[in-house]
Write a structure and sequence with these properties.
Helix content is 30%, strand content 23%. It is an alpha/beta fold. The chain has a domain of 179 residues: P-loop containing nucleotide triphosphate hydrolases (Rossmann fold), CATH 3.40.50. Strand 4 and strand 5 form a beta hairpin. Helix 3 crosses helix 4, helix 3 runs parallel beside helix 6 and helix 6 runs parallel beside helix 7. The protein starts with 44 loop residues before the first strand and ends in a 5-residue tail after the last helix.
Amino acid sequence: MTTRSEEPLLTVETPEMSESGADPGGVPGARQEPAAGSVRPPTEVAMTVRDLSAWYGQRRAVREISLDINARAITAIIGPSGSGKSTLLRCLDRMHEVVPGARSSGQVLYQGVDIYDPMIEPAAVRRTIGMVFQQPNPFPTMTIYDNVAAPARFNGVVKGKAAEDDLVQRCLTRAALWNEVKDKLRHGGTSLSGGQQQRLCIARALALEPKVLLMDEPCSALDPVATLQVEELMSHLKADYTIVIVTHNMQQASRVSDATAFLTMGEDRAGYLVEVGPTSEIFTSPKQQLTEDYISGRFG
């Protein structure tokens, strides 16, 4: 069994990206709406996972997972605790490999390019495929403004104060936070409520102009009102971004996602994919009895 190289040699851009990181002929991260009367293109696959396994030391956490992730849609990953949901998510942007002793095999393709190819830099992957974590984690010593601007500034996404101001406003607006914070941009990021902090972290992720957003239990630390705000935000963002969310909340998965993947644990304690499909089908007429048992609350 082969394992991944830990030292990529250089950054390779996908053919779909220009030198500026933007889609050809468009604004970074923006999707051109079809003209009136035109036919929408068929469903586009943004990422493809094939025979993915991942280990922490000698323990295998996920086993031979294969699935497609549709572009400009929300895919929910559900399953009992310990079934490898977060590990699978972290493999999608190479965050898994930062854990000492962690490794993986198989393929994760973004627009046909294997993100684990030795020629691909992990930092480039994580700019294209952003992550929002379970606990809101704004930079504690930075202002609201700098929480959004600093990562983009460091990665060369923007140059000049005017461009930076525009980026901050645009990302905070996309994160449905601008109207709440526009008069206190110089306040600390941690001065915000939990829900606002999570939306600030989403704005920070958007500032790097990703194509895919990964969200690991983004609402688990939030109250119901803040949860609803983040769910509404995700529903708006999927017009421009591919979103993959890990959630323990069955109602949340059924509310916000277009597709759902159900993982559970095998006898070897490694997580594996039971089935994946349109959320409406997974929650009303799953093909596998294990899925029916989990969704109906018989285990998990």
